[in-house]
Amino acid sequence: MDRAGRRGHRLARPRLRRRARPPDGRDRVRPRPRRRVVRRDRRAVRTARNPVCPPRGRGPIEEVPVKRIAWIAALIVGAAGFALIVAHERSLARKLSGGDPVEVLVAARDIAIGERLDESMLGVRTIPSSYIERRHILAADARRALGVRVSLGVRAGEALLWSDLATGGGDRRDLSSLVTPGMRAVSIQASVTSRLGGLLRPGDRVDILLTTDRASHPVTVPLLQNVLVLAVGGDTGASGEVPLIGAKSDVTVSVTLEQAQALALAPHEGELVVALRHPEDITVVEDLPETTSADILEPQRRARLGARRTLAAPAAEPPSGKEIEHVH
Description:
Radius of gyration: 50 Å
Low-confidence stretches: 43-49, 57-63, 168-172, 310-321
Order of helices and strands: HHEEHHEEEEHEEHHE
Strand content: 15-25%
Largest sheet: 6 strands, antiparallel
Shape: elongated
Mean pLDDT: 73
């Protein structure tokens, strides 16, 4: 069909008549449903990926308190950070102070050698755990220390050690239990006169002198100073009685390994003599000269020897300001 034929065919189509209206004048055609308008909050996020906003056309969107959630989260994070900082500062303070505090026993008053411990003599003090040694008596072990004799004098405020008691570290009083870590126990022989007529006791401190011959002339040199006596003969101070010393009794002292070597060689060079010290005198004289026969026989040297002042004992330390809790 050509263009003219198609045009005529279109013109020849009959026109559709409009249906007559019903008598009541109302149109029977159903009206189109009006489109529902959904009002959305401007602050709501208009995206399908946000689960807070429902799909379009399913009803109004409720506003979620996003700012409130953000504030709550910020407060939780801040509180957690503050707690971590406080915990770190406390841990650092414990490390700088030497660790957690531990309660140990101290002497509430001066305790003399041979006294038996009772509750009135004991006190409690806290010290950092890094300063605790195996020799310290913990406050939890106070019952084990009651009634035990003291083998070494303890001043008020000083910590009590197992080595200070007549039972070293429990129910023992062996010589090995009296030796402190890093030290050695060495026995030396001295004459009866040098042992102070049998009055030397375990716990005393002495100086050891060596007298030998040098070029056919006797010489006395100070070998060791401020040495602790652990035992005299076979007595370690457990009985609290004055030991009976024979003519060949030994004196056991606490020394370092280097000092033990010197004491092992000294008897081959001459005779050893012990000089008793005051219990509070811990002074060590440096560069002390040796004494020869000339210092005794020549008048001028003898005068200088007599003019030398005796070293005074160090002044007693003032009592510590820390409180001492008595054991009840």
